[in-house]
Amino acid sequence: MAITSSTLYTDFLAIFVALAICVFTYFKWTFKYWERRNVPYIKPNFPSGTMQNPLWPTVSLGRTFGKQYKESKEKGLKHVGLFTFSMPNYMPIDLEYVKNVVACDFNYFIDRGVYYNEKHDPLSAHLFSLKGTKWRNLRAKLTPTFTSGKMKMMFRLVLECGKHMTYAMDEICRKQVSLDIKDWLGGFGTDVIGSCAFGIDCNSFKDPNSDFRIVSKRALDQTNWEIAKIFLGFVHEKLARKLAICTTPTEVTKFFLKIMEETVRYREKNNIMRNDFLQILLELKNSNEMKEVKGSQNFTIEELTAQAFIFFLAGYKTSSTTMSFCLYEMAEHQDIQEKVRKEIETVLETYDGEVCYDSIKEMKYLRQVIDETLRKHPPLEYLLRTCVKDYKVPGTDVTIEKGTAVSVSIYGLHYDPEYHSDPEKFDPERFSEENKRKIKPFIYMPFGEGPRMCIGTFPSKSRYNFIFFLQF
Ligand code: HEM
Prior knowledge:
It is a peripheral membrane protein. By secondary structure, the protein is mainly alpha-helical. The chain contains 20 helices and 6 strands.
């Protein structure tokens, strides 16, 4: 008996050692990837490569990229090789290289590499994650529907949500109690997106525990297990598909699908038209335009919900984070706050005190403050791309292989002292009419750039109006 268990133990040990040697050799080989390709690289660590352990990070991945951008730039590098665990990740540093990836040579970098699975996880197949032709066709159909006229009409819904927030804020001020401003603005974000994308009146201030608010929070607060699944989808999409991995929690999928089904049925039955995102999607669904995109079928309820869902995901956190940081910076810089307040008062006087789309458009200094907030605190700190066909970096003998992940550090660019002097300083004057003209393309891109930039900023002329629209 003792002999058997000791043999078993030795066998296990031998298997373990053999496995450890295989893993070690594999990592040693892959960690030489950039060296073999003659690309300068940051020394990776076993096992997470050049990033922190994603399950217990101390800073965000965007900040890590920002630091790596800074270090590489200080060394005079034009690009740098990184590793996500054993997976190579390419980061352009030089502005020309950045421009090529996000705009000029976009055809090589059309995808983000974000995992989706329309069959088992229908809400994951949205504009942000879709790939290649599917993405291109859907984007082409959706972009022209984001007209400033439609945004202007939708603004009324936002004002309505703003009113709920103002009443609740008056109450808070009367009681003189403190509040968690991020959570508070999250409530406002929920109301805006609930109303504009799903056509429902949530009023999170009256009912902070509404189903919509609770499920929305659940959709955004991913567990470590969900993060691990997203990560698996990123590093091994085929395996994740085979395992039918779903990244959206089941209760979230069920909830949003149910809301959408009910709202669409109600609107279609009662012939209701409303100036909101859902109406835009419904018009697309009913116009047969989607048949061109998808071949024969029209938009299904799942596909429609997935698009409304990404408007919610992409719009909610970005906007509430921006508003929170904007208030934070104004609290830190009372002089700036005072200037904003004076401007608002002066502009509103000429509009009989009415907060409306046009009056907000006239608040130029407020716009500068928001622009500077987005520079210092970009809600998305890096852009993701995947190389979809071998790409020779112009002027070099380096080829980026098909399948390589590419990360563009927005954070690094926004804090680059060559482009933004004294980058730590909160200075809205950088965006004055005169100074704005001096800002080179691609050094300031809180909404991304190129054909895959944020759809919430289209058409480009009304990009800032749209953001204003989100702030009120
Ligand atoms: C302060 C507000 C916002 C910021 C800073 C922001 C930022 C961004 C960024 C950086 C990207 C990636 C762009 C790229 O890869 O080049 C993006 C994509 C996207 N955003 Fe926004 N966003 C904001 C608000 C919104 C809103 C309100 C919506 C809702 C309509 C939205 C919908 C999207 C969508 C659908 C995409 C994916 C576009 C595509 O792949 O075609 N965003 N956003």
